[in-house]
What does this fold into?
Amino acid sequence: MQAPDVLADVGHLDPLAQVARALVLLKPKRVLEVLFGECPDGLLGVFSRFGSQPVYGPETYRLAFELFSDPRHRHRAKVLGQLPGQIRPEHVTVAASLDERLLHRSVLERCHPREVAALNRFVEMIVDLCGATPELIRESLDQLPVGSTGCRMTEWAEGWLARQVRLPFEPPIPKTDPDLKLRLGADLISLGRRFRNCASQRQSFSFVGECLIYEVTIPGEPAVVELLRLSSGTEVRWVCEDLLTVRNRRVKPETAAAVKAKLDQHGVLYQSLTRPPDDEQALHRLLDHHVRPAWDERAIAEREAGGAILDQMLDELEEEVHGREAA
It folds into this structure.
């Protein structure tokens, strides 16, 4: 549609000059109606917040129009309009691409378009692995501070790792096994505190299914087994990456033997869990070949001789450090 009063007596002007005159004289809402056929509520306000300079990528204007004109995108348009200050093209892109469960002002303030695909995948994962509901996801997003400073989306995602309760596949060791217990999420934090190790830092590995941590509950010595996932085509196997007791020390020979038997039972691969035969040890000495077993008689003897005193000193030091942190 053309406004006669705007285009009157413009025959002497070239086409570009005629367009320029129309843009100057027409009201902004009327310009949008000419361009898109209509100007839905909220669109003019968003366009005014793009700033005085043209945005890069003309598709941003069309995308913004689609958000405000299509009733299916009403919530996306509402969240986009909640942003304070200037609206950037990436805000529009993110608002149009995010999973519905992630539509939140704090997400739009922090999220870059290149992160959208990963966030959309992550929200599907926390539904499957953490039992997340739309209400719980919304509650976690509400806890993000307003504004683009402070907590990043990476930190928000890491907060969900402690809520993991299941794996995306059947575990290599059944839940019914009484001696090897899978630890996920918050249980890894508890395990790390009890064993004085870095189990809490393995949350992301169990979340994506690369490594799994099992607590050994066989009577005797407390221990932790770490399993590494290996694959070739469609075949998946698990291998024992480590077997350690408190403070990442090697376990007693009887503990290693008991765990080895359990891994045999479940088809888990391992290397050097137990002491090699005497003839094999002689060959190793001849070749100057050293293998780190899961246990070490010399380390065990040293631990029994004076380890209790060292453990007590370390415990007292940890309590002192934690006390200072709490203060």
